[in-house]
Each structure stands twice: as structure tokens, then as C-alpha cells.
Predict the structure.
Amino acid sequence: MKRKLTPLATRSKARYALLALPLVFGVAVVTYWLPMSRAATFTVGVEAEAGNLTGASKLTTDGNASGGKAVSFAGAGTGGGGGGSADGCTPQPGKQLQDQDMSDSQLPWKRTPGQKVTIYFETKNMTQEYMPYIDYGIQAWAKSPCLDPQAVASCPANANCVTMSIDKNSTEADGNFDAVEKGGFTTGGHITMYAKELDPQGAGAKKNVTVHEMGHAVGLRHRKTDRVLMNGDTYDDVFDPDAIDFQNLLVLYGNQT
Ligand SMILES: [Zn+2]
């Protein structure tokens, strides 16, 4: 989930879990919202409109893609259950999750030992505009030896599935991931992109928030460090997970038995 982009000098770190909706049979849908932080002033040469930063470091969609192209899909599954071998998803003895913003929470999916976790991102309700960002996110998170993310129009039956849609009305956030959790694992979820907030911010913000929400969907919570992908703020020039994100994925998935 992301709140609106605010200038560095005025960004606050306040965020909280808003609601937890218990469902039947022990399944819980948990929604975490970030409060919007309205900036009082804008300091750099940017145009302020409804609290959004629209100038500054806006990039074209592919302006910073160099870090995300060397991706191997070797071993990726092609459907159904297991996502190919996961030789690199090895346990990390003694390693802890790093740089965690504990006001946020996510859980990993259940991994079958020796296999990558296949997670389908269902795109049938997304516009063509978002497809390059989703594809970028697929390639970015596929760099983890534990994960086999796949973009599909419709999820296969009985598969790990994250649905996606665009909300045209709400101004609650830039984006959000609602997890379905059961038994200590994520078992499903939904990503919402908020057009009213994102459209004025442009391509960079849309790409950032798309890859970020996909990061939540693969099990990562927010990071405390500023200007990294999994920080709760929106950065229109940050698109790639970093070494700590991949380390955290090893901790989440490598130690599952
Ligand atoms: Zn977030």
C-alpha cells in the first residue's frame, strides 16, 4: 500500500492498520491503509495539485529499466502448482528479516520444499496502460530464487492468485494490497490501483506502486529505509527490489519446511 507522494522534507512515517475483517472458517482478510500525508509546502520545482508531486523526477516507463532486464525465467513453471526448482531458495540460518516497518504486516505463501512458489497475477481487469508495469514487476520479483510470479488474464483454478483492479473513485491511497491469510500464510489477495491519485502523478508513480504492491503480494512488508521500493511512500523513480528485499524473501521462503 502506498500513500501519496510527498516531498522528502515533509514526509511522515505514520501509518497504521485500519481494519481487520474476520471471515468465516478462520480466513481473515486484512487491510492495511496508509494515512494520507498532505504536504503543507512543496520545496522543489514541482507543481502541487491535490497534494501530489507531479514534476521532479518523473520518468518515462522505460527510463530506468536497465536494472530489470537481466531476468531468467529458467525453471519457471507454466501453470498449475509447482513453480520449478528453487535451488537458490536455501535456508538462511540465523538470518532475520531486515529493515522492517513493523506497523505493516504481510505473510509469505506456503512453499512446497524444493520448488518455487508460483503466484499468478490476474490482469483481466487492468487496462493496457498497466501491462508494462505488471510485466516489469513480474520480472523484478522473478529474480528471487524462491518465486515464480506469472501474469495471466485469468488465474487457473486452485492456484495461488492475486487479482488486480483499478479504482476510479477513491482517494484513500495510491495503491493497496488486501491479503487473504490462513494458517499463517497468504492464500490469496487483491491489488487495487487508485486512478484518482495515480493519474495526476504519471507513469513513474504507477510503475512504482504496481511493483510495490506486487512486493506486498509476494509477502514483503514495508521497509523503514527511505527511497527503497518497499518503503510505504511513492517514489516515481524507484522500480526495483534491492538486495535486502531478496534477502528477506529468502528468510520468508527459504526456511519453510
Ligand atoms: Zn505498501
Remarks:
- The two ends are 29 Å apart (CA to CA).
- The chain has a mean pLDDT of 76.
- Strands lie at 16-22, 28-33, 48-49, 52-53, 117-122, 147-152, 161-167, 175-182, 185-194.
- The chain is about 20% helix and 20% strand.
